[in-house]
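Researcher: Let's run the pair from yesterday's discussion. Sequence first, then tokens, for each.
Model: Starting with the first of the pair.
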Amino acid sequence: MAKTPKNMKSAAVYTADQIQVLEGLEAVRRRPGMYIGGIDQAALHHMVYEVVDNAVDEAMAERCDQIEVVLHKDKSISVIDDGAGIPVGIQKQTGLSALTVVMTKLHAGGKFGGGGYKVSGGLHGVGVSAVNALSTWFESTVRRDGKIYRQRFERGVPVTDVQVIGKTSKNDTGTQQRFMYDETIFDDDAEYRFETLVQRFREMAFLNRGLKIRLVDERPPEAREMNFYFEGGVSSFVRHLTRNRTVLHEPVHIERSFETTVVEAAIQYTDGFSESVYAFANTINTPDGGTHLTGLRSAVTRCVNDYAHKQGTLKEKDANFSGDDTREGLTAIISVKLVDPQFESQTKVKLLNNEVRNQVESVVAEAFSEWLESNPRQAKKIVDKCATSARARAAARKARDLVIRKSALESMTLPGKLADCSERDPAKAELYLVEGDSAGGSAKQGRDRRFQAILPLRGKILNVEKARLDKALSNREIQALITALGTGIGDQFNLANLRYHRIFIMTDADVDGSHIRTLLLTLFFRYMEPLISAGHLYIAQPPLYLIKSGREQHYAYSELEKERLVSRFPGKSVGVQRYKGLGEMNPEQLWQTTMNPEQRTALQVIIEDAAATDQTFDMLMGGEVAPRRRFINTHANEVRNLDV
């Protein structure tokens, strides 16, 4: 059958000339997301981690015990270590200096089995060369063999040869990498955050006992620094995570070496209701877990069940505790160091080595079982907590089933409940969670009914940080929210069933509004976390002020913007209206300022550091008052001066 001729005038010509070959680091500059995960602030920090990871690899090779990271005033950053120093001799395959090869060639380095590193995190060989490619300039300074060497690069291209710039003692070795990220590649608002780097480097120090890491910020308005050094390793890490919680026992420290793998873990139970378990491979955080995390969880569940049966808490006919039961209140760190780690991608979010699961499960099961037998009083507390969790989980299951049955029979378009939209494609639909009936009324009138749904929430939902899921499911507002979203909750959460791909928390700009917003964020983080990770949750940003002068009117979203707008009318009468609540805005104003996709401003909720986020919710919403009081006293002055 003959083909119908295509319109050659409109079709693009496709010939051999259209085939492009990207040489060297050009591919990195063209597609930075493939190498560092994007061009946003998180990717900018990933650049730093790639360079620091090389210094940490030196520490794991026992050639380095001090690392210094400096944020300079000119936006450049330095990473300095006292390791062996990058080799500068001629590399046989290329005829170039080894330093030049490491800095400019993808998939080049000393971590591919050449004996330079037994264990390392930089197995792909694209880390520092990718950073070099994405930097306006990059200077490598090496102290090695009694000499100081330097080479400069611009956008990944060497602009000098390796030069000897001085002498030093033969014992003085190490590498200094200083670079300026390319502002033409990264987002305009991307910048290094001191607090983000603090979290990362604290983790690194926990995972490498005896390693000293110093972080210095020279940028205005005020220089600051932090030093990290921990002798306790992952046990210190667990103590850090549980410092605001009531613990049931001291951390159980586990460590064992195989031929190719070192397994280290710390386990501690608290009286909380959430699981806080974090996994690392060659000191790299693997937020999506992997085989090492699976091995840890399996071992803990098996040990607790075996002990419960042995002590008679579980009878022969009783069902075993589930994994969820044995992990309630569990805080743990699993860290593995292995010769040939297989990660899911260059950003190393998940470990794939199959042999690691059995190694971790074997080590943890043996050590944790022995600890339970040797500490019967603490072991009984753990088993009793798991038994209570199992009963509560059964109650939660019944409550959840009741919510599902009820929602199937009861219309959710009743007054004060969900005002749904007509759009049935979740990717195009939005849900606004609004504080109170007054604001809900304005939102319902001001919305675009085609794709915007409104769910008013009466009062404050239950604080799920202080209650198990079965209690949370008895709260009517939480029931309405679960039904509206369609995803379920907890261990039955299914993101594929989400009915709206943009969910906005829209509360008043006062103390009560902030509290309601925090309660909702706690619920989402503890029981619907995949929804946040997938980028579906936002915080609406309604204006704080309406500025009027004559026929002109402007909205201000901060104190600073208000002052700037008022100053535009010198000598004129200016009216300033403060919106204390969303209900004070008429529907047209609410649509124009907060709900119109073409004009609105909203903050997307993201999780930069799961461990830090976990601690923050525990401190702000948990049962311990003292840590919350310390936090409030520490930050009171900052809040008073905050540009809201």
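Model: Moving on to the second of the pair.
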Amino acid sequence: MKPGLSMYRNLLFGVLSVLICCTLSFGCNTSSRAGRVIVLGLDGMDPDIVDLLMSEGKLPNFAKLRREGAYGRFLSTKPLLSPIIWTTIATGKSAADHKIGHFVAVNEKTGEQLPVTSSMRAVKALWNILSEQDRSVGVVGWWATWPAEAVNGTVISDHACYHFLFPEGQTGGTDVTGVVYPPEYFETVRRMIRRPADLTRDELAGFVEIDDDEFARPFEFSDDLSHFKWALATADTYRDLGLHLWEQQEPDVLFVYVEGVDSTSHLFGHLFRAEGLAGDLAAQQQRFGQTVEKMYEYADDILGRYIDALDGDTTLIVLSDHGFELGVLHDDPTKTRDMRRVSERYHQVEGILYMYGNKVSPRRRLLSPVLMDIAPTVLSLAGLAPAVDMPGRVLTEAGRIEEPPRRLASYEGVPTFGAESPADPTADPAILERLASLGYLDTASPKGDRNLAAIYFESGRYEEAAAAFAELLQASPDNGALRASYGGALGALGRYDEALEQLSKAIELEPLNPEPYHNRALIYEHRGDTEAAIAEYRNALRYRSDYAPSLQALHRLTGSSDVAPSLSNEERQALFAAQQASDAAKRGDYTTAMEHLDRAETLAPHFPLVYQYRSNVAFLMGDLEAARRALEKALELEPDNALFKLNLERLGPSEGE
């Protein structure tokens, strides 16, 4: 018996109602299929190190996720700076759109330098979108979340633990505006925060080897042990606060960020399973050689606690923003004397990404996931359709996750939840001090706007890049690096004469920067002057021998990456001996380094590089007079070498002058 016409009409009306709902609302609400989601961010975890330690049985919870969930190496994008990347993850938009470009920016009203804040983000984050779509959220420690925004749930901003570094913060006496939303939740947070001084000797003993005097030292970020105490206490705090929110408030989506692995890798990563260390480095390794490995194991323990907190309706997403090259000694051994390596140089472009739980099938492989895939995937798991202006995709290959039709152009526009703007930010000296101690803070010239201009350039938006660099130069006309980048943008636009003028000025201002030489070589190539281009590529490598763009270009034009093809056989042997000296110096073995240099000087007494290396090793040994004499000899042999001149100036006059 066929159904009656009224049944068809009722069915049709029901379908139309769903379509109207999907069209008129901000997103297609499919809450009947929605589950809960935890996004656990573990900064700086490297996939190669995870695989290594997992193979040794040291990361059982990651091994569980590999067996029972989905996994893929997570491809990040340069610049590999945490505030940029974590904001891209949280928004599904590139830095060119969300406008977070560095760790610090400048307050346009006051001119002071300050850490990036939520008010600087130009697009909505997932917690804004989810709140507007009647989903509850929890956010803990995520980059650039201070001042905490109004959401349907709770935001514990990235300033929460910094506040309690101040003595008065321990009693809650300082200004806590914007640290937590809603403000009345602040007292709960305050009671749960661990401070560096709260860590016991036994807790630290699991990571580092210290004596009583070191344990009792007062806190300051310039002290590596203090810095590690902060990283561990903060990781404990954000781990526990995330679990507390999950259990007590039961948000639909929880975002938790833990930085411990990245900070520890910056401090002690060069010691990770490094062999043949001597002197100061050997002493460092005795005390801190296991710290990074133990922090990976600690991260695995955090993961285990969140696995235990899951229910059958929850999907767990575990990710890092980038990897970290460990066990590599710095080219400049002075950088490791205080166990601090500078900025993002050792960051790797691949991070980790695991999915587990609801709708995820065992042993699935994620297919080349990228940063902007996370936001669409989280929305889909929460029962919402991603917007058309979100470039990423839903990671459907993880299992039974569907990608709903994208009918909504954008979630941007007038906010419908928490429309009031966060408070005008002011600088927090504790955060600035910490960023400086890790080498992230450029106190002379914040780089956020320059990073955004560079992102325009890498995206092929050369007009926008050139305009952005030109605007930056108006404020900093003597910045050679900016002029080099501006010249590169002009060259990409085919404005070669203007570009060459800017590049020549850049070299005058900063003769050791390889970028203007490289950009000038590119222009010579475009004009067909291959010989001049090769010479300029070699000039770039003269001042930075590992500058990859010039190495690649030189190999392309000559079939070899040899910077100095005219070296004699004796000079090549001397170069090899000097490189052996450099390797020994990196390990802290200065005696062996000098023995190699003595051999190099005997082989090629008129080779400037030998004396450059001898100066470096003498400086490391504390013999400034010998360092000066070696540089003077190098400059005598190569009078136009800007590096020799600058280093001699830095050493200052000799004792007799």
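Researcher: Give me one sentence on the second I can quote.
Model: The chain has 28 helices and 13 strands.
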